[in-house]
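hi!! sorry for the late reply, been swamped w classes. u asked for the two structures so here they r. pasted raw, havent cleaned anything up. first the sequence of the first protein and right below it the tokens
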Amino acid sequence: MDHSPAARMLLLRAHQVLRMDIDDDDLVVLADARSRLENPSLVIRLSSTVGMPVETVTRELSKRAPKVVVKVVGDSTQKAIEYALKSSIWTLKESDQVAARPGLHKAAAMTTGAVAGFFGLETLVIELPLTTGIIFRSIADIARAEGESPSDPETILNCMQVFAMGSGMSNKDDAAETSYYGVRVALSKAVSDAVQYVASHSAGSVSAPALVRLISALASRFGVVVTQKAMAQSIPLIGALGGGLVNTLFISHFQDMARGHFAIRRLERKYGAEVVQQSYIGFEQG
């Protein structure tokens, strides 16, 4: 694989800092995953779509959300995560398909967003669970393309974990808690307990304590990005483009998070979790 000068420099820094036995091609994969996970794409996508500076979009999305938005998001996020888990956890199947199909899921999300955008913010309670279910399917598709088994409880719960990623604009968390590995550490106990529950129940309920704890932890972080989505539709230039386009950007954000997360999990299976994590951290130090 040919690398750009910038990629070669990044590789050189990584080798100098780490001296770890990770192939150059895999270091590029890791650097790309880190770029996706530590630089959430929703704001950037919104900015490039409407031609507004990133700083302007960031400022608009950082404004205190009106009470009506807070209420609607609060009512929607928990239900959305529950719906995604309940409707998909027992229905994911193995597939011979090799490549992921993000475009198919984007089209579906655009449709639900377009319908909701026509009727207004109040429909978020209905639209968000449907969109979240579509996003979950897309995340699982990306996981499968990275060598994960969709029927494995650990894969299913790692797919759910993606909803907690990329919410770095929360003012309740510090940088360590919103970084990729920070989120994984924060959720590790809840994910582990949920994996054990799902593995031991061929059919279960989202009201099981282990799943309730995970859903609550995911919903609190997912709600940050959902609030950004709702706030984006209140910005005149963005809102005028319609709910369909906003939803396309919304699902693209989580597809990026999934690509980064499951690329890292693939590298962890190959080199070991500790080596990959230290290499990931090494990019920050290089």
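now the second protein. again sequence first, tokens right under
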Amino acid sequence: MRRNQELIKLNLKLSVRNILSACLCLCLIGCSHNTTTETPVVTTTTTTTPVVEEPTKEVIPDTVLSFVAVGDNLIHGAVYYDAMNSDGTYDFKPMYQYMKPYIENADVSFINQETIIGGKAIGLSHYPLFNSPEELIEGISDTGFDLVNLASNHTLDKGEQAVLNALSFFDEYPNLVTAGANRSFEEQATLRTITRDDLTIGFMAYTAFTNGLYPPSGKEYLVNTIKRDSLIEEVSKARENCDILIVSMHFGTENSHEVNTYQKDYASLLNSLGVDVVIGTHPHVIQPMDLLESDSGHQTLVMYSLGNFLSAQIEVDQILEGMGMWTMRYNHETKELSFEDIAFMPLVDHYDHGYRNFRVYPLKDYTEELASLHTLEFTLEELIHKTKEIMGDKFEIILE
């Protein structure tokens, strides 16, 4: 009986222990279960458009070039006799010394070489059929000139050989660009150019006269003569191949201060073709300057005649001469060209009594003492009055 009771107690203990174990397991299971509801994390992405900085556009400043032009380098016998050295060579440099600062300091400078430079080998000569010594080119170069017109009524004075000689002499001075005379049709068709500050300057030259002389048949290229149709074609083509175009025209009436209809007609034509500067030569006296404007608004500076430069002519009007001066502004954005500071500087072709000591002076630097030494009789006041009367007041006249 007692044994049975002990067994019952033992069973009861085991039952209680089992129940407690079961409860403990349930509590542990309940504690391990996460009943909290988590709030989902929402990530917001903001899309930003990147700022693209445009490259700064480089502003190219305007190019401004200074120009000067003088008239006829008319080398009479008296001039080259005065330039002769004791050894038979020639030195013209002193004759230009008072003009050199103006010529060499300009970006571009022009001279009309009126007489052909055939050289000593074929015989020097003067009026009416000229031939000048080759040393003259050294004087032109040393003075600082850049553009040299060779198309004049005296280009053919000594025939084909003189033209070929002249061009060969100029070949020795690559700083000098010539136009108006040629060795072939191919050379004639080639636009002469110089470059300044990345601008291409085209240079062309024509003459209306050859004094009744003609080149050999088939060699018409020796000198450029004014023929309207071909001039239009050639200038139009040249205009497409340069930034600035300068055309020298040997035209006008000798010893006349009046601009004739022929000059005006061709100046207007060249303006309509887009030429920027027309430099007239031949009359041997000064004529007015003008600034033409075409229907399209293109401007052309025209110097109808600057008179002589170095010569031995014997009239007061012929020794009163001039230098055209101007600047040109090129806008690289618009490709437009404009003129500034257009002026005329009167000059005096001086030579002492007996046709010695030839020099070219600015009138502003000329003195009454020098005038008293000149072969011709005049006063400074006479030259100043005549300059103002002829040139007018459209452009500045530099007298001081």
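hope this helps!! also noticed smth abt the second:
The two ends are 159 Å apart (CA to CA).
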